[in-house]
Design a protein that fits this description.
The chain is built from twelve helices and nine strands. The longest helix is centred in the C-terminal third of the chain and has 20 residues. The two termini are 34 Å apart. It binds phosphoric acid mono(formamide)ester. The site of phosphoric acid mono(formamide)ester (CP) has 9 residues, from α2.
Length: 323
Amino acid sequence: MNGSTGWDHGVGRHLLGIEGMGRGDLERILEVTDRFAEIGRRPIPKVPALRGRTVALVFFEDSTRTRLSFETAARRLSADTLTFTAGSSSLSKGESLRDTVEVIRSYGADVLVIRHGMAGTPHRVAQWTDAAVVNAGDGCHEHPTQALLDAYTLREHRGALDGMSIAIVGDILHSRVARSGVLAFSLLGAEVTLVAPTTLLPPSLEGWPVRVSHDLDDIIDSLDACYMLRMQRERHDDGLIPSLREYTADYGLSARRAERLPKDALILHPGPTNPGVEIAAEVAAAERSVILDQVANGVSVRMAVLFLLLGSVPDPDDVAEAN
Ligand code: CP
């Protein structure tokens, strides 16, 4: 718990990163997620828990999964939603980030779900506003709700992450998913190995609770889960890899390489995939791939996060019973 990072739900504030959270914080969110997953399986998957509250989706970068799942989560909780997308806003007329935030807050937003290309933006916004702030991905820094939905998916299939051997493979350097995932998986007891060429690793991994390998073939037959990362070409300078073809040959999860995974090993990817680059299309669609489970679990996890930040009753069904 910390006032500027992580989950300071104790004072009803923000979710800015996995950094600063403890195992108990993660387990609490995953337990509450179980409740919302159950609600999601009902014929009418909706509870009035956040009726009268407003969730603002403030996206300065493109998104399909995160934005739509937060929107679905808010609606299943009966909250109102406001959506801001940079491309159709007054940013083009010189509106500042602070102005944008103040405008959205003045429309009654109780929580700002923010994605921005610059690391630290949600933390900055949290200093300006009395609304709750959720980091929906800030530059190459963190993507905490992705890590939560990934941990939930692993736990759903395995019961617990304790002792699991998880490889996170690919473009670690640019990956907020990797940073949040490493912290969450290791807090929950998994052993994490980063697999990448040196050029796609951060210059220093001091303090990261990980092992490092440059050879996926060396470790693939001992993994419980293989988490493939999207090659983030939009964030690349030239020269980080010799060529995409060589990268795929060395680090891509081809059908042939995937055959070397243990029989019950899981395959994950945060999406969107680059089929044929970091993962073959048939591997992404294989039975052991849990990519669509990750997508579906994103709604339940985000319901839990919104509820824990904004809910004033201990149980979402209490409101239903009171009405
Ligand atoms: N995984 C993820 O953040 O996907 P989107 O960019 O589609 O939100």
